[in-house]
Design brief:
This protein is α/β, with parallel strands linked by helices and about 160 residues long. The protein is built from three helices and five strands.
């Protein structure tokens, strides 16, 4: 019975299973330069975290990197979707957009300028205002992380086709 968990782990490792969001960048491309936002920006910290999972890292210096990601803009919005019978907003849509492009360290285009757009709708009945503010914050954080994973997956595919 004690060997069962070990057996499951070995089977999963043998079949090529990867954690969701894990990006397999080529070893010589695991250092990614980021331009357009600072390395202390929350989106940059998420990129750095996902790169660290595959023994990569984020830098601000393109001369140290295998690829360069240029962020042209990050936009977060909140829009009212529905109102209650008293005209108060009860349903909101959160929108998170990242505009970026990517190129090799020597300047060859990898990904043209493109946008990642994520949308989430949540209900806010105003009955638990503090809890709903926290919920909105968590949804925004999850959207930012999903955008970072999506950017890295697109970069991964572009690097696979570039070689």
């Amino acid at each position: 019975m004690r060997l069962m968990p070990l057996l499951i782990v070995l089977l999963l490792a043998g079949c090529g299973f990867h954690l969701r969001g894990a990006v397999e960048l080529p070893p010589d491309k695991r250092v990614v330069a980021l331009q357009g936002i600072g390395l202390d920006h929350p989106f940059a910290r998420d990129l750095a975290m996902f790169l660290a999972l595959v023994e990569g890292r984020l830098t601000g210096d393109p001369s140290q990197a295998g690829s360069v990601v240029v962020i042209h803009g990050i936009d977060q919005r909140r829009r009212v979707v529905s109102l209650d019978e008293h005209g108060k907003a009860i349903e909101f849509e959160l929108i998170y957009k990242v505009r970026f492009e990517a190129r090799t360290a020597d300047g060859k285009p990898l990904l043209p300028l493109q946008t990642i757009t994520l949308r989430r709708i949540y209900l806010n009945t105003q009955l638990q205002a503090i809890g709903k503010a926290e919920e909105e914050s968590l949804i925004r954080e999850e959207m930012r992380r999903e955008a970072a994973r999506t950017l890295l997956r697109r970069l991964q595919r572009a690097l696979e086709h570039a070689d």
